[in-house]
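Researcher: We plan to redesign the surface later, but first we want a full-length starting point. Tokens attached.
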């Protein structure tokens, strides 16, 4: 569908929504602005509950496929996979919705408006909800967020398959314990450079149907009543045309937590007048009185309800049954064989191989008689699913995955080892009550797999997590409780040890890095996670994940948790050496970048020859050659202002400023996937470290070679100034291309360098 046709259809939806709303009383309209919208029988409008969740599968509404948690999906660095998974989620959503509607079930978590994805930036590893996100990087979060939105909403010309929601606007990443009254103070530069790009991408590229506001304030103004964020930036600047929803209870916080409004009526009026259309909560019930007192105009109420009904019309829920193709999706798609196979594949692609000394992995089962499996996460379903999860009909823990994989070929011995975070597994026992069992399992095993980490009882949302620390946030980056003692006991046995970490965030596992020969980061890998991890341990699958977050040596290198300045945070601004850097991950095979070169896409720009400048594994550090870009001319081309067509409807393809080419070969002995990563460093005082600006997944058989292209727009070579204005200056930028970041720690861990190409920018 072209832009004109799409615009025409949207106007049809809006006209229909206006006709429906024009027949409502003020009270009926107000009741439609609350998440549990009642039926209006005289108008043929069914009841509808807007609250539904689909972070990594349809959640909280019975059986559904439980995919890996979002942070694990981010570790795939695979845009195609994330859309495929989101499409599977919306397929199950429609199957469940069609059944529920047939049974007249309109309860919570039974609608088609999903409050996902979470595109907040995981700026601090102590934040409990970080595993809901796609990591610490704005570019990666944007790419994953956009493709997730597209998968959820579908590509039908007339109807949305389901409605996605980008949350939480904005500058929101803890602390959880004070979020209802917290003021996130942020500079204009950090706001635009770090906290807003993913929202912008979801709006402009994903055409996300909804945006959710955060609990906190930003620079003194509550997010769900923040005119600048909602109206000036997201609507006017980004072009958002959908509906805006509050986080649950956030409007009440305007009064009770932030003390910005004197009464609930004032809080409701403030949120509505500043652009919030839908209340997850009950504060909008006070809007009738607010209208009567002149605090809110009825015209603004009409606008909000029209937006909400436009979404319902797009979903086809006001049409006759079978009017859209999604009405024909049967309930039997839920938890089906294809869904399980996709889930297991996703879980395998999430796993990051952090260490593999002496190529201990993969294990050769023919040489093993007994496998020892230890640790509180070895047989834990909670360590599979993260939060905002559905209910699987079958779970495979790591223990169960190993047991199923080895079958009768080897014995599997197991000990819980210790409680996840307490000092004993039994309340009546003495501390460390499983240590003798741990040692016994090790004594009788040929190899020991130790499963440690966290689960959503330790890191999660305030009110959901049950830990003893800080409302879901972590007090530090250490393994909790006695876990490291169990690991040390396993290593002391002299048997080969593999550490499997299941967590939603970075852990400071320095002792393990020094003493354990093989380490896997499995995240919260979903209901099939144990099967996938077992196949990686025994070599049926090759690990391919890359870290979407930095692993630090310790938390004392981090700035104060409540400080929202990006200085010193994440790979983009940190000065200290990482334990495991962003973008890092090993494989069972190896890849060679046989040739890397770049070219501009515009014939009228200063440009190098199409077959030069190039960089090979041998000469890429010398930075031979240069690509020249006239940024002013390129920005005109990117904006369409130089298009020969007349008017505002120019549809000429917007070209990349630079196209990076890489010829990659699998030089190992097994099939595997390489994540090609492109970073850009803009030199200058106080500029960020090299930042991720392009990704591409390449799957290669042994000996196979493939050439990839990654397009970099002119925006990849600019930065925001202190006032939040985007600037492109005349500099020689550095473009790095490889399977990791261009930092010294990644080079030391992998023994590989990345290729470097200079690009001369004429601002």
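Model: Full-length starting sequence:
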């Amino acid at each position: 569908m072209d832009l004109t046709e799409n615009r025409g259809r949207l106007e049809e939806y809006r006209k229909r929504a206006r006709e429906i709303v024009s027949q409502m009383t003020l009270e009926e309209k107000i009741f439609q602005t609350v998440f549990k919208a009642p039926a209006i029988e005289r108008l043929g409008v069914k009841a509808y509950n807007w609250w539904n969740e689909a972070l990594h599968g349809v959640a909280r509404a019975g059986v559904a496929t439980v995919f890996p948690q979002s942070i694990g999906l981010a570790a795939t660095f695979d845009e195609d996979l994330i859309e495929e998974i989101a499409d599977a989620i919306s397929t199950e959503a429609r199957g469940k919705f069609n059944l529920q509607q047939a049974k007249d079930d309109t309860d919570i978590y039974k609608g088609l408006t999903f409050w996902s994805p979470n595109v907040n930036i995981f700026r601090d590893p102590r934040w409990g909800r970080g595993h809901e996100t796609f990591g610490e990087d704005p570019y990666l979060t944007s790419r994953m967020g956009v493709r997730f939105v597209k998968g959820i909403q579908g590509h039908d010309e007339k109807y949305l398959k389901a409605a996605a929601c980008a949350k939480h606007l904005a500058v929101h990443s803890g602390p959880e314990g004070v979020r209802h009254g917290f003021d996130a103070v942020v500079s204009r530069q950090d706001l635009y450079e770090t906290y807003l790009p993913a929202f912008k991408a979801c709006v402009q590229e994903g055409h996300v149907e909804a945006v959710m506001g955060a609990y906190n304030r930003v620079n003194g103004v509550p997010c769900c009543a923040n005119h600048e964020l909602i109206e000036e930036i997201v609507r006017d600047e980004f072009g958002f045309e959908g509906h805006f929803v509050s986080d649950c209870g956030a409007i009440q916080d305007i009064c009770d937590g932030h003390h910005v409004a004197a009464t609930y009526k004032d809080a409701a009026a403030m949120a509505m007048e500043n652009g919030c259309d839908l209340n997850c909560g009950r504060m909008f019930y006070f809007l009738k009185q607010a209208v009567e007192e002149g605090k809110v105009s009825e015209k603004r109420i009409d606008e909000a309800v029209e937006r909400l009904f436009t979404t319902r019309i797009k979903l086809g829920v006001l049409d006759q049954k079978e009017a859209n193709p999604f009405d024909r999706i049967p309930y039997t798609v839920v938890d089906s064989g294809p869904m399980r196979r996709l889930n297991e594949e996703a879980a395998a692609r999430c796993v990051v191989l952090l260490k593999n000394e002496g190529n201990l992995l993969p294990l050769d089962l023919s040489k093993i008689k007994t496998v020892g499996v230890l640790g509180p996460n070895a047989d834990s379903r909670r360590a599979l699913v993260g939060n905002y999860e559905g209910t699987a009909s079958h779970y495979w823990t790591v223990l169960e995955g190993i047991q199923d994989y080895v079958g009768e070929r080897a014995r599997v011995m197991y000990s819980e080892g210790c409680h996840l975070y307490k000092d004993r597994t039994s309340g009546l026992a003495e501390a460390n009550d499983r240590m003798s069992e741990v040692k016994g399992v090790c004594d009788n095993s040929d190899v020991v797999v130790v499963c440690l980490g966290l689960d959503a009882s330790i890191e999660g949302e305030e009110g959901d997590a049950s830990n003893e620390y800080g409302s879901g946030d972590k007090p530090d980056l250490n393994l909790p409780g006695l876990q490291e003692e169990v690991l040390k006991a396993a290593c002391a046995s002299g048997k080969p040890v593999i550490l499997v970490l299941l967590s939603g965030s970075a852990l400071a596992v320095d002792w393990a890095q020094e003493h354990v020969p093989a380490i896997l980061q499995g995240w919260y890998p979903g209901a099939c996670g144990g099967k996938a991890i077992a196949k990686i341990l025994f070599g049926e699958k090759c690990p391919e994940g890359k870290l979407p977050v930095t692993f630090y040596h310790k938390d004392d290198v981090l700035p104060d948790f409540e400080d929202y300045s990006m200085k010193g945070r994440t790979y983009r601004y940190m000065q200290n050496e990482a334990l495991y850097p962003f973008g890092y991950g090993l494989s069972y095979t190896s890849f060679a970048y046989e040739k890397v070169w770049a070219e501009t896409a515009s014939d009228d720009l200063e440009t190098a020859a199409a077959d030069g400048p190039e960089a090979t594994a041998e000469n890429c550090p010398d930075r031979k050659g240069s690509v020249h870009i006239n940024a002013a001319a390129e920005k005109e081309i990117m904006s369409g202002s130089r298009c020969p067509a007349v008017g505002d409807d120019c549809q000429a393809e917007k070209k990349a400023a630079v196209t990076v080419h890489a010829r990659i070969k699998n030089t190992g002995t097994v099939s595997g996937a390489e994540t090609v990563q492109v970073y850009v460093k803009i030199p200058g005082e106080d500029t960020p470290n090299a930042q991720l600006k392009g990704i591409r997944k390449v799957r290669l058989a042994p000996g196979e070679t493939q050439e990839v292209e990654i397009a970099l727009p002119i925006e990849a070579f600019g930065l925001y100034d202190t006032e939040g204005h985007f600037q492109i200056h005349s500099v020689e930028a550095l473009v790095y291309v490889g399977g990791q970041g261009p930092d010294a720690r990644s080079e030391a861990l992998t023994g590989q360098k990345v290729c470097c190409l200079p690009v001369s920018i004429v601002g």
